[in-house]
Structures are given as structure tokens and as C-alpha cells.
Amino acid sequence: MSRLVDRVLDRFVPKADASACSGNYFCNAAGHPGYWFRFCCVDSGCDWTYIRGC
Predict the structure, then answer these.
(1) 49, 21 Cβ separation under 8 angstroms
(2) Is the pTM of this model over 0.85?
(3) Residues 24, 29, 35, 39: what is their CA dihedral angle, to the nearest 10 degrees?
(4) Distance between CA 54 and CA 30 in Å, rounded?
(5) Which pLDDT does position 45 carry in this prediction?
(6) Which of 1, 7, 9, 46 is deepest in the core (most CB within 10 A)?
């Protein structure tokens, strides 16, 4: 019965995005001068994600 409920919920409840990134952008993050980064966490772990040069 619970598997049926899970299947119904899967259809109607939107899935969360696989990655969770901070809303803030950082220039010179993680020791990389001249670039914008933001901190993102995904299934494999958390890391600074390159956005663009600043």
C-alpha cells in the first residue's frame, strides 16, 4: 500500500533539484582570484562552482 502512495506522490509532488547552491556569489572564492564562484552541494559532495570571471 505504501508503494502505491509513493507512486501517486511522485506524480504530483515536484522533485527537488539535485544540487543545492548558495544564493550568494563570491569573487576570489576558494583562493581563485578574479573569478566568481558559489558554494554548491550535490549528491557527490560540496564544492565551489565556477560562474564567470569578475
Answers:
(1) yes
(2) no
(3) -40
(4) 14
(5) 85
(6) 46
Answer whether 38's CB lies under 8 Å from 48's CB. yes
CB-based burial, 2-25: b 16+ in 10 Å, e otherwise: eeeeeeeeeeeeeeeeeeeeeeee
Which cell goes with 29? Answer: 572564492
Angle (nearest 5°) at CA 45 between 42 and 14: 20
In order, the DSSP letters of 10-31 are HHHSPPPPS-EE-S--EETGGG
Q: Which of 48, 53, 44 is nearest to 31 (CA)?
A: 48
